[in-house]
Every structure is written in C-alpha cells, then in structure tokens.
Amino acid sequence: MQEALHALRKLRAGYVSAMSKACAQIDALLVDYANLAKVKSVQATLDKAWSNFQENATRYRSLLDEDSIEIHEVDTQYVTQERRKLQYDLKIEEYTVAAGTHFNEQVSQDCQF
C-alpha cells in the first residue's frame, strides 16, 4: 500500500504543477482581450488538471487511516488548490465579461463611422 500512496503522491504533485503552469499561462494572457480564445483553451487545461487532482486526492485519502496526519495534509492541500481554482475561474469570468464589453464597444464605434 505504501507504494500506491507514493505513486499517488507523485501524481498529485504533477497535477499541482500542471495547475501552476496553467495559472501562469492564464496570467500572461489576461493582459490582452485578443487572447480570449487562448485563455479559454488554457482554462480547459486547468479544468482537466483540477479534475485529475480531485480524483487523485479522493483516492489517496481513501487509502489512509482516518486518524492519519496525512489526511490533514491532503485536506489542507485540497482546500488550497480548490481556492486557487475558484480564484482563477472568477478571474477568467471577469476577463470574459470585460472582453465582451470591449469588443461590443469596438463594434459600436465601427458602426458609427
């Protein structure tokens, strides 16, 4: 069982790394509304990494004893990653609305001429 826990721990670290990479890419793209399609694409990558992380954490937790210190560590990591995922979902939603407003204003200006 220790081998399974070790393998799951390594996989989970990889998912956290993939989430960090996606978040960094999103941050770099949010500077320009023309990047909307790219942002949505990277968001899909973030969503997949989050889903994999969730499944992994659930599986890992199911292999631990309920009184294990590792359960607290896994739960803390889960909450931290969940909070980050929600923050990025909100960032992307706000960016999407702002981009839509920006493009609508451009179209309105183009129609006036």
Mean pLDDT across residues: 93
Helix content estimate: over 70%
One letter per element, helices H and strands E, the order comes to: HHH
| Domains, number | 1
Counted by DSSP, the helix tally is 3
Low-confidence stretches: none
User: How does the major sheet shape up?
Assistant: none
Fraction in beta strands: under 5%
Tell me the radius of gyration: 19 Å
Strand segment count: 0
Morphology call:
elongated
CATH architectural grouping: Up-down Bundle
Determine and state the CATH class. Mainly Alpha
The name CATH uses for the topology is Methane Monooxygenase Hydroxylase, Chain G, domain 1
Kindly report how far apart the N and C termini lie: 70 Å
| Class from helix and strand fractions | mainly alpha
Q: How would you explain this protein's 3D organization?
A:
- The chain has 113 residues and is mostly helical.
- The protein has a single domain (2-112), classed as Methane Monooxygenase Hydroxylase, Chain G, domain 1.
- The protein contains three helices and no strands.
- It has helices spanning 2-29, 36-62, 69-112.
- Helix 1 (2-29) runs parallel beside helix 3.
- The longest helix has 44 residues, at 69-112.
- The termini are far apart.
